[in-house]
Amino acid sequence: MRAELLEQIYTIVAQIPQGRVTTYGRVAKMTEGATARMVGSAMRHLPDGHGLPWHRVIAADRKIADHGGAARQRDKLCAEGVVFDANGRVDATRLWP
């Protein structure tokens, strides 16, 4: 992936406010050519000590994607006041922007 595209993705993710979420696809649409898959890949390959709120990026169905850090992601979101319904979805009012 081009460095400029990674930088765009990271800049967008850094802006997601606490207690809010966005989707891989929404982040992609704010870039100059990334796809939702590319955003997911960028989140998976964050460098150590990055400080980005990766946990605020979720799947288009407003659920946490199935990955090794899913439980940690859910815990981090819950700590920020994000509530999940019985189906594991985040309320649409929490979507950013």
TrEMBL record:
Classification via Pfam families: DNA_binding_1 (PF01035)
InterPro entries: ATL_DNA_repair, MethylDNA_cys_MeTrfase_DNA-bd, MethylDNA_cys_MeTrfase_DNAb, WH-like_DNA-bd_sf
Keywords, comma-separated and alphabetical: DNA damage
Residues in Methylated-DNA-[protein]-cysteine S-methyltransferase DNA binding domain copies: 7-82
CDD domains: ATase (cd06445)
SUPFAM superfamilies, sorted: Methylated DNA-protein cysteine methyltransferase, C-terminal domain (SSF46767)
Name of this protein: Methylated-DNA-[protein]-cysteine S-methyltransferase DNA binding domain-containing protein
Organism, as annotated: Litchfieldella qijiaojingensis
